[in-house]
């Protein structure tokens, strides 16, 4: 899909505040509400806008720690990768999982309440997934940067 400067400007506004009104979006990008609405619907239909979410503070729900887990699998067959991904998707504490190049096969970001909760999740869920050869865990001490996509519009 070709995006013009108005589409990119709309995406910037929505990325900062997905609850912005059409009037607010229009004022920010220099269009009236109807063209903004049409562009948003077109981008939703094309899959550029995948959905709208709420950014919840994990600590407010008791998830005080974030853990990054590096995992190496025994096999790299399509079936093994598929089954591992499917098993990860069933673990609620797994926030993100990336199949990566390098020394490990996966980087997994996990939210836990504390170290005991992490130990329980490892024992009861992660280590029950067949095919894990090796894993390494790193507790996040502090988030240094959280950012939005670097959307720049031309013109």
Written overview of the protein:
With 155 residues, the protein is α+β, with helices and mostly antiparallel strands. The chain folds into two domains: 5-45, Orthogonal Bundle (Arc Repressor Mutant, subunit A), CATH 1.10.10.10; 58-139, 2-Layer Sandwich (Alpha-Beta Plaits), CATH 3.30.70. 35% of the residues lie in helices and 19% in strands. The chain is built from five helices and four strands, in the order H-H-H-E-H-E-E-H-E. It has helices at residues 5-16, 22-29, 33-45, 78-89, 115-124; strands at 65-73, 94-99, 106-112, 132-139. The protein has a four-stranded antiparallel beta sheet with strand order 2-3-1-4. A hairpin with a 6-residue loop joins strand 2 and strand 3. Helix 2 packs across helix 3. The protein starts with a helix and ends in a 16-residue tail after the last strand. The mean pLDDT is 94.
